[in-house]
Write a structure and sequence with these properties.
Layout (H helix, E strand, L loop, with lengths): L13 H18 L3 E9 L2 E9 L2 E10 L13 H17 L7 E12 L2 E11 L4
Length: about 130
């Protein structure tokens, strides 16, 4: 009996792509003076891709990657419901870290895309506000 073994493609998984995008975003932001506090912070209400320090601000960063921009940028995909989830997760984080809760907070979005085989990074500072 013979077996047919189909070669396994070396195509990266979405998890691998996400981790690579987060690493690129983290490196980019650190080159621009931010300090990495945490990656992939998980809470009951959601996950924060990056938590960073920018002088006197705690910065919660959502990283989005798009292979194509025909449906909009990664930043365009951060909907109102996604923003709400990020805000709730950030509030949970701040409850768990009361010393950091005394600082000003902002939400940034880093949008990565592949254009003509090159990576394009767009960093949007203060991308949205927490209401209330």
């Amino acid at each position: 009996m013979s077996q047919y073994n189909k070669p396994v493609a070396d195509k990266p998984t979405s998890v691998q792509i996400g981790k690579a995008a987060e690493s690129l975003a983290s490196d980019y932001l650190q080159q621009h003076g931010l300090k990495l506090i945490s990656r992939n912070y998980r809470a009951p209400c959601g996950e924060l891709d990056l938590i960073m320090q920018d002088h006197d601000h705690m910065v919660f960063v959502e990283v989005r990657f798009r292979r194509h921009t025909r449906y909009g940028s990664g930043a365009d995909s951060v909907t109102a419901s996604k923003q709400d989830k990020l805000i709730k997760t950030a509030l949970y984080y701040l409850q768990q870290h009361p010393r950091q809760a005394k600082q000003a907070v902002r939400f940034d979005v880093v949008s990565l895309s592949a254009v003509d085989g090159r990576s394009n990074i767009e960093s949007i500072k203060d991308a949205f506000q927490a209401e209330g």
